[in-house]
Amino acid sequence: MRPRRFTIGRADEATHPDSIRATISEFISTLIFVFAGEGSVLALGKMYNMDTGTTASGQVVVALAHALALFVAVAVGFNVSGGHVNPAVTFGALVGGRISVLLAFLYWIAQLLGAVVASLLLRLCTDGMRPVGFSVAYGVGELNAFLLEIVMTFGLVYTVYATAIDPKRGSLGTIAPLAIGFIVGANILAGGPFDGASMNPALAFGPALVGWRWRNHWIYWVGPFIGAALASLIYEFILIPTEAAHLHQPLAPEDY
């Protein structure tokens, strides 16, 4: 197991062109993802005038929309910021020493702002439709939903590490955005009927703020952060060999 290498980050990192470009990329990528993902839920609700998450076909459509949107969002940001599009993924990278604390905060701000702007745009474009966001389904306990978010986010961040960060990934890195989109779509099919399957605090926060729906909101922050930390600790410090740890830096440069 190699030693941890956490870095706070220098003051000039916040204003460095690479950091600014990466932050803007995270904002735009998250906006694209949340607009398409949450928009699919509103669109189905508009067409069928019902809670589409309660139907099998509606669940499949929502899962497919999120998978495709995340595939694109990660792909367009991959070469600039690493294509996190998710505060939990950024937290996993921070725990693994792949990003500085300062840059992580910049990413978090950009991701949350992107989600809020996307939700505002949706409300404007749909003539005032209130974003649905996430909530625990009737009959499902908070602890069950909390554990579900941990497990699903663990799978997501583990996939990110295996396909985008691992220095041994080779040509597998070319399908990283697709694999990441697939695992999110699959998790939505598995966990959507129980708690909506967020795995992404920004995706939960934007619609919650604009639609003002805060019930059980803590689950969609604490669960993903724990799952991301577990995945990064296991992959970064156990599965990546010490001699290969320095070969790959998938995020914005840390040496200026």
Automatic annotation (TrEMBL):
Any Gene Ontology CC annotation: vacuolar membrane
A Pfam family recorded for this sequence: MIP
Entry keywords, A to Z: Membrane, Repeat, Transmembrane, Transmembrane helix, Transport, Vacuole
Membrane-topology descriptor: Multi-pass membrane protein
GO molecular function term, any single one: water channel activity
Family label: Belongs to the MIP/aquaporin (TC 1.A.8) family. TIP (TC 1.A.8.10) subfamily.
Protein name in the entry: Tonoplast intrinsic protein
Organism annotation: Protea cynaroides
Lineage: Eukaryota, Viridiplantae, Streptophyta, Embryophyta, Tracheophyta
